[in-house]
Amino acid sequence: MAQKLMRVGIIGGGLMGREAASAFARWFVLNDFPVRAELIAVCDLQQNLLDWFKQIPTVKLLTKDHAELLRSSDVDVVYVAVPHNLHEKIYLDVLNAGKDLLAEKPFGIDLAAAQKIADVAKKSGRFVRCSSEFPFLPGPQRVLQAVQSGKLGRILEIHSGFHHSSDMDPTKPVNWKRQVKTCGEIGVMGDLGMHAVHVPFRLGWTPIRVYAQLQKIYTERPDGKGGMAPCDTWDNAILHTEIQIGGDEIPMRLEMKRLAPGETNTWYLEVLGTQGGVKYSTKEPKTLWTFQREKEQLWQKTDLGFNGPFATITGGIFEPGFPDCFQQMWAAYATERANTLENKFGCVTPDEAVLSHRVFAAALESQRAKTAVAVK
Ligand SMILES: NC(=O)c1ccc[n+]([C@@H]2O[C@H](COP(=O)([O-])OP(=O)(O)OC[C@H]3O[C@@H](n4cnc5c(N)ncnc54)[C@H](O)[C@@H]3O)[C@@H](O)[C@H]2O)c1
Q1: pTM for this model (two decimals)
Q2: pLDDT 10s digits, 261-310
Q3: Is the CB of 43 under 6 A from ligand 1?
Q4: Angle formed by the axes of helices 87-96 and 111-124, to 10°?
Q5: Fewer CB within 10 A of the end CB, N or C, for the chain?
Q6: For residues 194 and 132, is the Cβ–Cβ distance under 8 A?
Q7: Do 29 and 312 contact (CB within 8 A), yes or no?
Q8: Ligand 1 in reach of 69 Cβ (< 6 A)
Q9: Atom 5, ligand 1: which residue's CA is nearest?
Q10: Pocket of ligand 1 contains residue 105 by CB under 6 Å
Q11: Farthest-apart Cα atoms in the chain, separation
Q12: Burial, 185: exposed, middle or buried (Cβ in 10 Å; 0-12, 13-18, 19+)?
């Protein structure tokens, strides 16, 4: 098959920028894939990170100035993975330079920024999506299929969340994700919320109101220079929301936590209905749980293989992990950009990203007013 070339630039070569480089470096894992991704240019402020990217033979441009990367006619698509306070400026610069964009979540530091980015994206006509990779694992895909099959009966409730635990350690040094000025007032919701809402939103489950329980747990952390620095973002968020399915109001609980004892990086989704149920968590990455109501009520577990939405050369009985779902997400981006996604699951759209911010803004208001707040 003749492959189209997608030439990528990365702005922000930190944790996620390097993860993206790894996905492109082993792109040949994708079988009979219509697009070839090639990393061409990287921008970061830190020289040691730019030096790291020198080991990638396709990289022609390393720069500390993102405007220089955006001037390059060799770059078609830009992946931006920088602190949240820089999203609006850099995403708009990418669009104004005429490039396509895979943005990192939360797609702007707040609702106003997200709305502005989405408006400019629409006017620009560029192909813009936002990052959220876990739904591309086989387990979440099976949850989606179970819901779409209609076999769960009337939906009783939905639980979706993402839990971290490294902040349980009070000696963990501060970083930009712990401060409002760089992470945003929404705090953990901006960090982890997109992971919890991507699949529910795609199923049409839009919260109509939210009651939020937000917690600030450690309000200062070591600054790495012998002193302490303030941490003013929300650490844990539990959002009790209601959605509408077939005229009924159904509870959907969304959880995002930095302090969840024992959970290094746990994404989960659980949908319970009157006839059936389905649940998946990366805690047990191979396992899909399905519920059946027969004469007896059964929870059954199925061992899942490697089968992500996009075919790979990896054996079907092997186990997928984070780098695999991240690459599958990029495969979805590349395929949708080339108009060949067909009925496969796609990346978060700008409208979905704005909707997530509307929910998080309502959550902040709910926390302040100590009452349920309508999502506007
Ligand atoms: N999808 C996911 O699973 C996931 C996981 C972690 C983080 N993220 C998101 O990715 C983004 C980045 O997070 P991270 O964990 O990679 O952060 P990071 O701190 O590891 O990396 C950010 C990088 O941006 C660079 N940078 C800062 N200002 C810059 C500028 N003006 N020009 C170029 N580079 C600049 C920094 O030097 C740093 O290397 C955030 O939006 C975050 O929410 C997504």
Answers
A1: 0.97
A2: 999 999 999 999 999 999 999 999 999 999 999 999 999 999 999 999 99
A3: yes
A4: 10
A5: N
A6: yes
A7: yes
A8: no
A9: 16
A10: yes
A11: 67
A12: middle
